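Could you help me review a protein record that somebody else here produced? This is what I was given.
***
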Amino acid sequence: MTDQADLLHSLETHFLGSLTQKIGDFMAAGGTQVQLVPLEEEQPLQNQQIFMEYQEMIEKEICSFAAEKGIQEEEIISLCKPSEFEEGQYCALTCIEYLLAMTEYASFMQLVSDHRDCQQWEYGDELGGLEEDEE
């Protein structure tokens, strides 16, 4: 079995490459169609469809990465163990957030929300928000 820390480092490098751009493009297109409804309320079917599209996109990347490294996809998915996050050991890795969003609907919805917040922060003036004081 591949050492977990080495695997996470390789996965992080992979995710920070072209995959981050793919996820950004996905969120800019499909993520804007997600309705941010409290999780305890009934979820729109369109949200589930977009979640499944996200899962498919990430799964293809995981399969490609796993084949390149000669490991099983399950080994990569197992990196999303909640116990690791409670210890704080890997919570700063972007790849963990993307993997969690693939495996848990609530994490996916949080990723969509975070992406929207970042877009608003980056483009606040263009979107009519985050106005600066003019003195």
